[in-house]
Structure formats: structure tokens, C-alpha cells
Amino acid sequence: MNITSIKIKKFATEGKMRAIASITIDDCFAIHDVKVIENNGKVFVAMPNKRLKDGTFKDVAHPINIETRKLIEDAVIEAYNNAEAEE
């Protein structure tokens, strides 16, 4: 599996969400609304999710194993760190 494209849209807001990413895998599968969140000085990636009727959230798309999660997280955080802030 290769991440062939990452698009980052940074936000200049006071909340915890810092950016939204879209990733393309192997030039044939796209995942949108991947969130870049900063909490307590640490940046992490949250996969796209939806709110259920009981108020909890459930991932819509997510990696199945630790290696794939790390690959996606590292690539998105690197792209985030290299992106220019959208104004």
C-alpha cells in the first residue's frame, strides 16, 4: 500500500482541530475528512467518523492494523507540518 497523495487544509482557529486532510491510496482509493488534532501539545490524526444517535462517534473508515495506522498517521502529520496555512 502506498499513499500517493495527501491534501491538507490548515485552520487558524482556537479549537483543537488544526487541519483536515484527504489522502489517496495507490492512486485508486480516497479517504476524506481525516482530522489533524492538537491536544496538550501533541498532534494526532483522527479518522473520518459520524455521530450516532446516542451521541457517540463511530469511524467511517479506519486502518485495520497498527502498521497501516502508523503509515497513515506519519504521512498525514508530515504533510501537515510541511503545509502552508490556508488564509
From TrEMBL:
Organism domain of life: Bacteria
Protein name per its UniProtKB record: Septation regulator SpoVG
Transmembrane as UniProt keyword: no
UniProt entry tagged with the keyword Cell division: yes
GO process terms (BP): division septum assembly; sporulation resulting in formation of a cellular spore
InterPro entries: SpoVG, SpoVG_sf
Gene name as annotated: spoVG
One Pfam family named in its UniProt record: SpoVG
Keyword tags: Cell cycle, Cell division, Septation
